[in-house]
Every structure is written in C-alpha cells, then in structure tokens.
TrEMBL record:
It is a single-pass membrane protein. GO terms for biological process: lipid metabolic process. GO terms for molecular function: flavin adenine dinucleotide binding; N,N-dimethylaniline monooxygenase activity; NAD(P)H oxidase H2O2-forming activity; NADP binding; trimethylamine monooxygenase activity. It is found in: Endoplasmic reticulum membrane; Microsome membrane. It catalyses: trimethylamine + NADPH + O2 = trimethylamine N-oxide + NADP(+) + H2O; heptan-2-one + NADPH + O2 + H(+) = pentyl acetate + NADP(+) + H2O; NADPH + O2 + H(+) = H2O2 + NADP(+); hypotaurine + NADPH + O2 + H(+) = taurine + NADP(+) + H2O. Keywords: Endoplasmic reticulum, FAD, Flavoprotein, Lipid metabolism, Membrane, Methylation, Microsome, Monooxygenase, NADP, Oxidoreductase, Phosphoprotein, Transmembrane, Transmembrane helix. The keyword Oxidoreductase applies. Its cofactor is FAD. It comes from Cetraspora pellucida. SUPFAM superfamilies: FAD/NAD(P)-binding domain. Belongs to the FMO family. Pfam families: FMO-like (PF00743). This is Flavin-containing monooxygenase 1.
C-alpha cells in the first residue's frame, strides 16, 4: 500500500517537527516553504527595497522569552553551553541542527508559495503552488498540515490623521534595528512584548521615546530571571493548574514588584497578571526612570505637522516616527476563512475578538473539514515548539488510526465553545487572546490520547521517584531539593522529556 501523502505548509518550528513526525510514522511529507530557508520568523531577514514584505522576519536583537529548557523539541536537547535565553541566531541554528539530524531538508520545497488549498469530493486536498521562476502547478494530498503560524500578517490600528502624518510609520514586523532612529523622537504603540523590546532598545539611542498604552495602564511586567534562574523554571503543573488563581496572581505581582520594580504613579496595572498574555522586560522601569521612555495613553489623532494627540488631552510635537507594535492578524490567504472559523459562530463574539477567532477542535481541526490540521496555532504561555511537536505527533497518529477519530461535529463544537468560554473568563477580550493556551494543560490534553501522559507508574519506572514527585505534583525545585536532597531540572523541561518517552512507534496500537 502506498504511503499517505501530507502537504506541510511552512518550514518554521511547527513545519519542521511535522516533517519529522511524518517520517517517523511512515507518512510521505511534502513541505512548501515560501522563503529560501527554514526557521520561519526566527531567521533574521533585512527589510530592503526589493523585500518590503519578508516572509520571515525578526528584529536583530530579539532574544526568545522562554528558557532553553522549555524551547526545545523533546528528543533534541539544546546544547548545554548555550545561554538560558537564546538570541534568535541560536534559535535558527537549533532548527538547522534539528533539520540536519533528522534529514528534513530533502522534504522541503523552498521558495515555493502555496496559492490555494481546496478540498476535493473524495476528501483529499488539492494544493496549488508556485516556485520562484517556475509555472504554477498543483498536486493532490491525503492530508494538509498548516504550519504557517500566527505572527505573519501585521494588525494596524486606525487613527484619525494617519494618512496625513508626515513622520515615518511602520508596523513592528518591519522593525529591524535601532540605528535608523538615532536622535529621533519616536512613538511605539502597544504594550506587548514587541512594544516593550523595541521601546527599551530605542530609548538607548533615540532622543525621546513614548510608549502608548491603549488601556491607559501598564500590564504586570515579568523579569527574565528570578533567583538567578529563568522564571519559567518556577512554572509547574502545581502552580498553573492547581494553585488558586488569586495566589498565582499574588505571587506574580510580588515577583514583578520586587525584581522589575514599581510603575510610575497613576500607571499601576489595573488588570490581574493572569488576565493578559505575559509581558517580559526586566529593565523597562529602569528606562522610564531615566526619562528617555515616557508612557502615554491611547492616541486620538496624528497631525500632518508631526504632532500626536492623546485621549487625556495631551499633545506631543515633532514626532519623527511611529512604530505600531499592535500585534498580528490570524490569516491563511491560501484557505477559505470558513475553514478556520465557522461563520455561524462569529456573531457571538465582539468585533475585535471576532477578527482573530479560530474555531478548531483540539486547537487543530476544523469540525466540518476532514484531513486538515493547524499546527502551532496556539498562543502558548511558554514556548510553542514542544506543543507543535505533540500536535504533529497527534496528527500522524490520527492518520494511522492510532488515536480515536474525531467525535460527531456537534461534540467538536461543544469542546471548542467550552474552550472559548474558558479563555474569555480568564483573559480580557482582545484580538491577541483568542488562541491563548497554557503550556502544561495543552500538552497534557493531547498526551493523554497519545498515551504519553506522565502517569505515575510510567514515571517511576522510567525516571525514578524524584521525577515522579516533580511531574505529578509539580513541586517547585527548592522544596524538592529539601525533600529529596538532590538538585534537579525544572518541571517544564522534565515534562517535555517525559512526553518523549512515548514516540509514535511506542504508542499502544489500538
Ligand atoms: N522576546 C520575545 O520572545 C518576543 C516575543 N514576542 C511574542 O510575539 C507575539 C506578538 O507580540 P506583539 O507583537 O507584542 O503583539 P501582541 O498582540 O502581543 O500585543 C499587541 C499590543 O498592541 C496593543 N494593540 C492592539 N491593537 C491596538 C490598537 N488598535 N490600538 C492600540 N493598541 C493596540 C495590544 O493591546 P491590548 O492588550 O489592549 O489588545 C497589545 O498591547 C507574542 O506572543 C509575544 O509574546 C514578541 C516580541 C518579543
């Protein structure tokens, strides 16, 4: 019997691990990658006159906000001498090493853009694509895995006067380095991680930087390190899943106040840490204290003469540039929007939320469309790589019939609705919170079906008692150290390795 053929769209973190899982599960992958390299947005590319819309992009200085122990595929550890928080060059190198180790490159068609994917009456998918310098062509696949991510299409706000404003305006997607802003007066809009990184970086070279926060107050800002260790090393199932949210919030606030510092008067966060995607920038308040970075509320209008007005009635003059770090639109131009989100449910949500709403069973599968899955379409609190790996593993197991097939459509809708209600209860309504996910819960959710959920006996057998305590109860390192008298890794990294205990080939075949 011939192998099932799978079209994998995108060769970033999710695409690479999907190729690897297909090969491991005897499935033929064909990966389409629009750029000439792997690693997706982790590969720095210049924005040039000929390349105004780079397929992959990242600013030169960006450092990943999750520790190397969390930002890893389960079976391919990051070299121990690499730093805790990796520069994007390291992340791209890690993907190169992964691709080489598992011989993924021969399965990738580079410089190839997928123009359209449509379902055929026999439930296979027709993929139309074009390779640079060649004619358009099409091919039929048994399954499609969409791995293009959700940080590719900039979301721009609409302000009065934007068209007339004489200063330069760009989205953060096209920001590369601070040198162009030397001695300039710059406004950065937004207060997510891009806005924090860019405004702090610019505050070292620009003559004045303003960061403009539409909700009027700042979020709780996390440090990268606490007690000399990456903050995600303190995360565990116990902390995230079982500790009451008010205690989690109290602990997060205490850490933020102690390490990052206190916000200027009037800018104290009004939202709880848990109701917003985490923001990290250890030296943000330090830059504010120097006066080179000033916080402003939402913009009301931009004026032709370079001035900008704000909702509190204040006005700033002679602004040279505005950088909109306002997040991303979730789009798949090669697919009908109806596939990603059922039209019937849109009306139930507020306008901004609706723009980025996705309606997928198990965060991957559109209820009405068989044989297509979205990999890595979760805004994880933690690194996406392990989840993409788990999702890819789930899809290849599904194709081979090792995990149960989907329930009836109404049941899938029920699961998705429950999930959306949960998200809306926790996070405030915003376009950036439609696909939020918690690291352990998302991984465990799939691991249970795949048979690699870290059940106590499995763990005891494999790794010994100390790890059993840690994984099952998520006991923080410090307590474990006292209880068990030995130094050990953080819960997150262990959890990833434990999942690896169950490679597709080891899954119980039903
Ligand atoms: N070092 C790292 O690892 C980095 C990681 N990242 C990650 O990349 C992803 C994207 O981050 P980022 O680019 O910051 O985008 P986000 O979507 O996370 O943040 C967008 C920001 O813009 C604000 N905003 C959205 N729409 C408007 C509007 N119309 N007017 C004014 N403000 C608006 C949002 O406010 P509101 O909350 O009110 O919606 C929010 O503060 C995140 O997952 C982030 O964690 C980004 C940069 C660096």
């Amino acid at each position: 019997m011939s192998k099932p053929r799978v079209a994998i769209i995108g060769a970033g973190a999710s695409g690479l691990t999907s190729i690897k899982q297909c090969i491991a599960d005897n499935i033929e992958p064909v990966c389409f990658e629009a750029s000439s390299t792997t690693a997706g947005l982790w590969r720095f590319t210049e924005v040039t006159e000929d390349n105004k819309d780079p397929h992959s992009s990242i600013y030169k200085s960006v450092i990943i906000n999750t520790s190397k122990e969390m930002s890893t595929f389960s079976d391919f550890p990051i070299p121990p001498d690499w730093p805790y928080y990796m520069h994007n060059k390291f992340v791209a190198k890690y993907f190169d090493m992964y691709a080489e180790r598992f011989q993924l490159i021969p399965h990738i068609k580079f410089n190839t853009t997928v123009l359209n994917a449509s379902i055929l009456p026999d439930k296979r998918w027709k993929v139309r694509y074009v390779t640079k310098g060649e004619e358009e062509t099409e091919s039929v696949f048994d399954y499609v895995m969409v791995c293009t991510g959700h940080h590719r299409y900039p979301r721009m706000p609409k302000y009065k006067g934007m068209e007339q404003f004489k200063g330069n305006q760009i989205h953060s997607h096209f920001y590369r380095e601070p040198t162009n802003y030397k001695d300039k007066r710059v406004v950065v809009v937004g207060c997510g991680n891009s806005a924090m990184d860019i405004s702090v970086e610019l505050s070292e070279v620009a003559s004045q930087v303003y960061i403009c926060v539409r909700r009027g107050t700042l979020p709780w800002i996390l440090p990268r390190l606490a007690k000399g260790k990456p903050v995600d090393h303190f995360g565990s199932r116990f902390f995230v899943n079982w500790l009451p949210r008010f205690i989690q919030n109290y602990m997060t606030k205490t850490m933020s106040k102690t390490i990052v510092g206190l916000p200027p008067a009037g800018l104290e966060p009004k939202i709880e840490p848990s109701s917003c995607h985490p923001t990290m920038k250890t030296n943000f308040y330090e830059r504010i204290s120097t006066g080179t970075l000033i916080v402003k509320p939402n913009i009301t209008q931009l004026n032709e003469d370079g001035s900008i007005e704000f909702v509190d009635g204040t006005k700033i003059e002679d602004i040279d540039a505005v950088i909109y770090a306002t997040g991303y639109q979730i789009e798949f131009p090669f697919l009908d929007r109806e596939i990603v989100c059922d039209k019937e449910v849109l009306e139930e949500f507020e306008e901004e939320y609706r723009e980025n709403l996705v309606w997928l069973y198990k965060r991957m599968f559109p209820p009405k469309y068989p044989n297509i899955a979205f990999i890595g379409l979760v805004q994880l609190i933690g690194a996406i790589f392990p989840l993409s790996e788990m999702q890819a593993r789930y899809v290849t197991s599904l194709i081979n019939g090792y995990v149960p097939s989907h329930p009836p459509i109404p049941e899938m809708h029920k699961e998705i609705r429950k999930r959306q209600e949960f998200l809306q209860k926790i996070f405030y309504n915003a376009a950036r919170h439609t696909i939020e996910g918690f690291f352990f819960s998302e991984l465990d959710y799939l691991a249970k079906d795949l048979g690699c959920y870290p059940y106590p006996l499995q763990i005891i057998r494999r790794f010994g008692l100390s790890l059993y305590w840690k994984i099952l109860f998520g006991i923080p390192n410090s307590i474990q150290y006292r209880l068990l008298g030995r130094q050990s890794w953080d819960g997150a990294a262990d959890a990833i390795r434990v999942y690896n205990d169950c490679e597709p080939s080891k899954i119980k075949r039903s």
